[in-house]
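Bench notes, afternoon.
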Amino acid sequence: MRKIQVILLFSVAALIFAGCSLRTTRSGILMIKGSETMKPLITELAAEFMRKNPGVSIYVDGGSSSEGIRELIEGEADICMASRPLEAKEVRALAEKTGMLGISTIIAKDEVFFYVNGSNRVSNLSFTQLKDILSGRITNWKEVGGPDLRITLYLRPSNSGTMAYVRKFVLDNQNYGSNAIIKPTNDEIIEGVAGDEGAIGFTGIQYGAESRISLLSVDKIFPSGFSPGSEGYPVTRYLHLYTISEPTGIHKDLITWIISPEGQKIVRELGYIPLWLKE
């Protein structure tokens, strides 16, 4: 049996050349799969990296964090996008398949947006109210100062990283309410909420710009991606890129560039939260 190599990575390490752009002469193909939340970000970063490195081809495919992790383990992806940490069972599967425990590089932060139909007058929920709505304990908007209207919860499938994150950190690992309608993509969540007066849904930061829905503040704090300068929004998470082992070659070139000042500037421009870059 191969010895499992334990590799620890401090994601935001001194990989960055201050004020410099990373340029390479490498060529090759990368397949990046996973988180639907991260897909818009990684697609734009990959396009810019390919523009700077014409010999490199990068293919980005969304779906869910769970799917991306499975595809990384099975060798169907070179890099996995995940909006959550690996679960213990995934680490075991990776170790059994590859003899490695995987490497996580944190590349950005993301705020989970909660929103309602544009006709709903509710604009703020306390964290406790949000938890009670998502778990099904509160079932009518009048219970939180809204109209006498049944609440309909729009969710992604259970393999979604955003679903898993909210279930763990908002619901304390309790189940979502039975009043849920499952939609396979974030775009369909948006469409569902926009067309249902009693709806509530949530997605990552990049899916919150839609005029037919209204963004909720939580504990009277709006996400900083919506309200620049806002601090303390309670539903914030890190976004990860996973590789099986310590990245080398174009894997390393891409990831190093993403967490460089140049890459983090794009992170900020796209509405995500850079790790350290300031205005």
